[in-house]
Each structure stands twice: as structure tokens, then as C-alpha cells.
Amino acid sequence: MTRYVLQRLFGMLTVMFTVVTIVFVIVRVAPGDPAAVMLGPDATPADIEVLRVRLGLDQPLPIQYVYFLAQLARGDLGHSIFLDMPVASALLDRAEPTFFLTIFAILIASAIALPVGIMSAYKRGSFFDQAVTTLTMLAASIPSFWLGLILIQVFAVRFGWFPVAGYGGPDASFLTRMSHLVLPAVALGVVSSALITRFTRASMLDVLNDDYVRTARSKGMGEFRVIMKHAFKNALIPVLTVIGLTAALLVSGAVVTETVFSLPGVGNLVVSAVLRRDYPVIQGALLVIAAIYVLINFGIDLLYLMIDPRVRY
């Protein structure tokens, strides 16, 4: 087990180093000059060059890359060009909406997908199963931003049950802020539930006809217990994998939904940074998202041991 953890940690460091390099190169070769964007269209070339020197953008890319790696080694994600604050602080200020939006969305997706997927597999070939298959294909085809707009129109504009957009004022209570996340979480959760439902159904179908399930039934065990204790428990590993990957994708994929609902999250911060060519913020946000993705995958692998004792590393 210790050897496996060390191997995974080494692999995680390798992945992160690769991500660091790719992010640095892509951000630097992208068109646009942050100095020119900051100074505006009336700036002279001399003014732009002075600002480039002050920001260190005049240095050759290898030198900038070495400085960037040295910053990361100290745990420093850099300093935002436009916000004039450390990137870590900027990300931390925007983390709450994105964090809770991801948690709520994955809870909604799991609450929908797990029982529906289990029932669909149990009633294979029935009308319910065919309806679930059709609806999951439809849900997977719906863009989350479109569903978000529909939810705003119905539940915020027409009925007034939820806020239209935003995240509450500076003095808003925790419950008020959370109420702003209900509609975006539902939009993301419904769309994400499609993939989890299909994986749950497929995984359950693989185990429902296994010998140990038939043995449990032949012993007179209740059907609910057979399904949940014997079948679902053994079908949980691939389901857990897709739930974890969905959670990781939601962290990075909530950009459009945050924009539709005007949420001051990490996604909105990244969009603003891209438009302004704020290199440090773009790099820092992408690296944090990549690190979260890697850690979630690592955590899922460790959970396998708790769910299935037959798994050995």
C-alpha cells in the first residue's frame, strides 16, 4: 500500500509538472498583450514597453518559465496584473460559490442518478427502462446554460421562488447566498445525472445475473436487500469512478453556468482573466483546477479499498 501511494504521488507530481509547462506555454503564445490591454488603446508603444519591463514580460520565455517554477516551489501562484493582489487570495475569495455549487450539483446528480439507474437495471426492457434511456440521452444533450436560462425564466422570473442571479450583497447571510445556488446547481446536476445514470444502469446489469445474487435470492433474502447489499455494493466501483470524475469536471466546467447566473466564482474569474490577458490568474486557476482533478482521482482509488476488499495495490 505504501509503495502504491508513493508511486501515485510521483505520478501526480509528473502530471502537475506537465500541466504547469503546458499552461505556461499556451498562455504565453496566446494572442494579446496584457500591458496593452491595461493601458488601453491610447497608450503609446513606449508606455507599453515600460509596463512590459515592469511586469517582467520583456524577458525571454525560458527565463519567465524558470521564474514561474521558482514561484511555484515557494507556494506562490503569482500576483494578479489587473487585480493587484496575490493570485491565491483572488482564488480564495472566489472559491466559496464554486465549491458549494459543485457540492450541490454532484449531490443532486447522485440523488437522481443512483435510484433511477438501479431501478432501470432492475426493470430492464420495461417501459420505465426505455423512458430512462430516452431521458438520459436528452439530458446529456441539453447544454447546462440553456437549462439554466429556462429555470431562471420559470422559477425566478415567473414564480419568484429563487433569486434571478448574483450571490447576494456583502452582508448577505449564508442561507441567502446558498439560495442563489439552487437553480445553477439544479441545472448542472440534471445534466450531470445523465452520465451517472447510464453508468449505474450498466454496472448493475453486469452484476444482477451473477451467481452470488441468485444465491442470495434462493436463500429467501428480501429483494431490496439483495439489490442494495449484494448487487449495488459490487457495482459501486465504476459508479464511484464516474461520480468522482463528474465532480472534478464540474469544478472546471461551471464557467458557463457561473456566467449565466452572474456568480462571482472561479469560473467568472478565469473568464475575466482571459479577456484581460491576466497571465498569473489564468495560470494559477488552471493549476489549482488540475490539482483538484488529480487529488479527486487519487481519493477515488483509495476509496476502492474501503468498498471492495478484493482490490489490492
Q: What can you see in these coordinates?
A:
With 313 residues, the protein is mostly helical. It has two domains: 2-92, no CATH class; 95-264, Orthogonal Bundle (MetI-like fold). Helix content is 77%, strand content 0%. The protein is built from 14 helices and no strands. It holds the Pfam family BPD_transp_1_N. It is found in: Cell membrane. This is Peptide/nickel transport system permease protein.
Largest sheet: none
Supply the CATH superfamily name of the largest domain. Answer: MetI-like
Q: pLDDT below 50 for ≥5 consecutive residues: which ranges?
A: none
Q: Percent range for helical residues?
A: over 70%
How many domains comprise the coordinates? 2
| Inertia-based shape | globular
CATH architecture field of the largest domain? Orthogonal Bundle
- CATH classification class of the largest domain: Mainly Alpha
Number of strands: 0
Keywords: Cell membrane, Membrane, Transmembrane, Transmembrane helix, Transport
Protein name: Peptide/nickel transport system permease protein
Domain ABC transmembrane type-1: 95-304
Family: Belongs to the binding-protein-dependent transport system permease family.
